[in-house]
Amino acid sequence: MPTAQEQTTTGIPRRVIWLALAGAVGGFLFGFDSSVVNGAVDALKEEFALSEAVTGFAVAIALLGCAACAFLVSKVADRHGRIPAMKLGALLFLVSALGTGFAFGVWDLVFWRLVGGLGIGLASVIAPAYISEISPRQVRGRLASLQQLAITTGIFAALLSDALLATTAGGADQRFWLGIEAWRWMFLAAAVPAVVYGWIAFTLPESPRFLVFKGKEDEARKVFASIAPAEDTDRHIREIQEAIEEDKVVPEGLLRGKTLGLQAVVWVGIVLSVLQQFVGINVIFYYSTTLWKAVGFQEKDSLAISVATSITNILVTLVAIALVDRVGRRPILLAGSVGMAVSLGAMALAFSSAIGSGENITLPGAWGPVALVAANVFVVSFGASWGPLVWVLLGEIFPSRIRARALGLAAAAQWVANFVITLSFPVMASASLPLTYAMYALFAAASFFFVMFKVPETNGMSLEQAETLFVPKGSAKAK
Fold this sequence. Notes:
mainly alpha
């Protein structure tokens, strides 16, 4: 049994918190690697004489890599374990950082961005799966939310390092240490957390649930005893073994089911992932420079505002972590949907009153402050709900035997949705920005009804209990 010194004030063994934080480092790399390109875009265009289309492709190609790896990595995770998959992710991040930092042409730049996307896609699957599988049920929501906290922290670190490098060098395209341009250092900086992630992967124990699947009950028992000493370890082992045996007799098998070829629970995960992106979180501030100028900010302040926004993301994620195991998943998601729908609707209404077109617009009267406040309310609503809680649910709703594969499919759908929204936003915004925000508001409203009717509460349940909520009535596992 752990000593008092080994327990936190909340009663959670320090080892569990360490394992969850260590697993979430993949989320940090996820956020860092996906955002670090922001400060280098203009310098890349100038360095390689890129057109707008090629620049957009070079940036967006990482999203396709994310989708591909998220779908494929499950085979590595299910065959070899969560830890080997983490090691592979660290290697991909490191190779991408070095390759992109020393890119000599547009095509190798695109290739290394694709490699980085593979690493991001891997981390988006392994981190929530691992954290959910090593977390005690009563605190699983809080610990699983660390994935989103790590992502937002990674985004903040990337934006901050971009800002510091560009400011110190006198511009992203200016030479800095060792005569290397600042934009290259922006990418090379990602090598540091990649090495740390790789080192951490060699120190972590394997997921106890994966060990049970492989027939290594003694090893799994040791891990369970270290992460949940106050719980019945033998009961945990029995529940997992029973789930494995029940899965073997389910006619649909693995991912296959009667609903368009997939089990219903897999579709729940896919729709949650798609809705998380279709509310427009990753593009809502693509038009932010215009928004800020419309209410009086100078363009030179945009980078500082972006950093401030990323800090806000971190703070509201902490709020979600504090509430998720006390309030539950559903109430927080429903409240977040309402906040997003209302704030996006307000932005659509505000921009319907805009004067001018393209980047030369102004918002008359009080509409400018309304739009600015609404944008920040949207970020808070998303960051305190759908941002972290979708990852929590994806880590706990899938049956243990298919968790990695189902999570990989849901994460792949999320990255494809991200790619679609990223590419479609400039065209839609140029046609009608009010209609664009109105469309995002409709998806936010749809997210409310989807959670209301399709997503049950999983708070306080073991992973094996949570999976039974999505089993059709009358089946063996539902009885």
